[in-house]
Amino acid sequence: MYIDNPRLAYTRLFGDIAGEESESDGMLKEPYSHNLAELAALKSKLGPQAIARIEEHEAAIKRAILNLEQQVDVGCDNQVQSTYGWENTGSKPEVGHFTQVSNQHCDTIALALKCGLTNLVTLSLGTSDVDFTVPEFAELGPYHTVINSNTPHYIKFRNYLSERLAYLINVLKTTTDENGDSLLDSTIVLQVTCMGDGSAHDQANAPFTMATATKNMIGGRGVTVSHSHSLLDTVTAALGVEDQMPQYGDGAVPSLLL
Q: Are residues 63 and 167 in the same domain?
């Protein structure tokens, strides 16, 4: 489910200023609460020995729920609320609107990763049919028109969108995890695209960008790969989860891994 309003995205994850329970809190706790209810129903049908074991499971589940509550509450709740400036994120396309909204989404992404609410995030800049405009460059027209007709305008538009990516990378770099390490040390940012030559609708030579500070990857280079799926395999290999994920392509790109 995509959420374009950054305040709504933040509230769904962390609740509001008044301390209302967030939707993510409920989603995280729901399986544990369900298990507790199932165990309680079983206890009435079992003998003393089995009940003792059930109660051990109940205690473990309650500890897990407590850990979830502490994980979100300690140093995580409402950290960015005071600096967001929500009053400027309405539907009016004023100058700076797209920049501010995308930056606020990036701030929420970093906070969600910091608090352990997720390990995977997707950020979409614009709409799926690429027929969107950016108030900062209103004179360029819709993005779809730009990538199909005017190379100088396309370069300007792409540079601007790359600046949004740079903001996300910097936020991850300057935000620390529970160990005090930069989030970028354990996160890989993969910018994807489906178009190499917009005028020809050609997918050949489509540009992708990867950014990370993990010690398992070699940076500062440009490489050519046979298929973009190889980059997905590279991500799972660099994060050490390739045995838990299906292979998308022909495997990781060796020249990008240490």
A: no
* Structure tokens belonging to residue 40: 């309680």
Do 227 and 252 meet the contact criterion of CB atoms below 8 Å apart? no
Asked if residue 10 and residue 119 are part of one domain, the reply reads: yes
Tokens 């950290």 belong to 79
Residues 128 and 97 in one domain: yes
* Structural domains of the chain, count: 2
* Nearest alpha carbon to residue 28 among 93, 58, 80, 73: 73
Structure confidence by residue, pLDDT tens digits, 44-57: 777 787 787 777 76
Question: Of the candidates 36, 24, 42, 38, which has an alpha carbon nearest to the alpha carbon of residue 61?
Answer: 36
Bridge partners (DSSP) of residue 211 are: 189
Q: Note whether 102 and 10 are same-domain residues.
A: yes
Both structure tokens of 104: 């606020």
Half-sphere exposure of 243 (CA within 13 A, CB side): 1
Q: Which domain holds residue 149?
A: 6-14+78-178
pLDDT for 195: 77
Collect the ranges in the chain with pLDDT lower than 70. Answer: 1, 15-35, 57, 60-61, 63-96, 128, 150
